[in-house]
Amino acid sequence: MTTLAAIKKKEAAVLVPLYDRYPLKIARGAGVYVYDERGRKYLDFLSGIGVNALGYGHPAVRRTIAQQSARGLVHVSNLFYTDYQAELAGRLEKLSGLDRAFFCNSGTEAWEAALKFARAYAQSRATNGHKPKWRVLAMQDAFHGRTFGSVACTWNEKYRKPFAPLLPGVEFVRFNDVRDLREKLDDTVCAVGIEAVQGEGGIRPATREFMQAARKLTKQRGALLICDEIQAGIGRTGKMFAYQHFGVLPDIVTVAKPLAAGLPLGAVLTSNAVSRALHYGMHGTTFGGGPLACAVALTVLDVLEKDKLLARNRQLGDYFRARLESLRKKHSAVREVRVLGLMAGVELDSPDLAKAVVKKMLERGIILNRTHETAIRMLPPYLIGKQHIERVVTTFDSILTEEAKHQKQPATKRSTTR
Ligand code: PLP
Q: Quick check: 256 and 93 in contact, CB under 8 A?
């Protein structure tokens, strides 16, 4: 097997240099753990950035993959009917409260399609002689993906600037600021896009007031409400969709990450009203909604239901919050703890401390990451137990204690991690 050093050297020579990888080569996975090439075990509290919600090698997922590939149908183009798209759409509709689905391959593709659907809906409703609404309001600190439409709706300059000019007509609203939304939501806006819990933005939940105002104002002004559930959806927050915590029903919802347990699958869920603006050939995909990915997604939904994982995620989330709050009370470097189900963020007082925590956690066999500079993000698999939370919190605690000691030492004695 190729060693970490060898693969690192090889990648540096042949890959476009876009990823600053952790110093870890993952060789296999089992349950909530991954193993490096020397057999060292890591507790994965990031689960492939929210994708591996059922962990690694889940027996039901393995069974479905084996059965479906044995049928010889990994891919069938969208020129033909296959077994699973309609069934999966029906299940997602029941769970979301929406009426129709379009399947694609990734989060950004789902967001692109949602933007196109919103534009098509606005065009279909434009009265003769009037210019259709076409502008989009997105949120500050939002992340919707890397393709042109998605990156145009993404707040962070570092993702946007090198590729300008982006899709025109996107304006940003201060997240959770009802007044700012009201002022910017004029008659030219066709859609407002919101993550009910911002993921890359540092695990920041919307307020109930903001979500309800967004629903009310979009209805009043004839704009669509699009919720990006790519990171927070499919049970992670303890509800099937994060918007369901806030008592609203959007017009369009995007999902991806955990939907097919690691196989690439995204979906756009829409109301019938939006769907009526779309016709054969207006949009499409070669790979999207393939029979293997859709069969696995049905298995994911079965497991969530059978093992009552939503309720479990809620309970574990409450426990996780309480344990992380104890860190906040003990360590002044912990500014804030934000937890909804198994979506957890710990805001630290500096980017360097957040970097040191990620590095030291990895050295101690725990995977998590840093987002929005100062937030430690945890998106564990839904299969964790309290014992895993305990391990993460006690390790976090000892690292924060060590780092606080380092800070008190004279500069010459400090380690280089901070
Ligand atoms: N939207 C949200 C909320 C996300 O978290 C992500 C990815 O992190 C995306 C969209 C983009 O998804 P993908 O990387 O599958 O294109």
A: no
Give the three-state DSSP class for 59: helix
Taking only the tens place, the pLDDT of each residue in 232-261 is 999 999 999 999 999 999 999 999 999 999
Residue 158 has pLDDT above 80, yes or no: yes
Question: Which residues, 6 or more positions from 70, have their beta carbon under 8 angstroms from its beta carbon?
Answer: none
Angle between helices 291-306 and 309-330 (to 10 degrees): 70
412 pLDDT band, cuts 50/70/90, is low
- Class of 73-306 per CATH? alpha beta
User: Is the shortest distance between the CB of 202 and ligand 1 below 6 Å?
Assistant: no
267 Cβ below 6 A of ligand 1: no
Return the amino acid letter for 351.
P
Question: Is 50:379 a contact under the CB 8 Å cutoff?
Answer: yes
Q: 3-state SS string over 278-347? A: CCCCCCCCCCCCCHHHHHHHHHHHHHHHHCCHHHHHHHHHHHHHHHHHHHHHHCCCEEEEEEECCEEEEE
Ligand 1 centroid from CA 147, angstroms = 10
| Residue whose CA lies nearest to ligand 1 atom number 12 | 107
Say which CATH topology domain 4-58+308-412 has: Aspartate Aminotransferase, domain 1 (3.90.1150)
CA distance 358 to 107: 25
Q: How many residues does the chain have?
A: 418
Looking at the chain, the whole-number percentage of residues with pLDDT higher than 70 is 98
Strand partners, 305: none
The preferred substitution site among 146, 150, 230, 285 for testing ligand 1, maximizing ligand atoms within 8 Å of CB, is: 230
Task: Report how far residue 31's alpha carbon sits from residue 235's, in angstroms, rounded to the nearest whole number.
Answer: 18
With a 6 A CB cut-off, is 145 part of the ligand 1 pocket? yes
Listed by start position, the domains of the chain span 4-58+308-412, 73-306
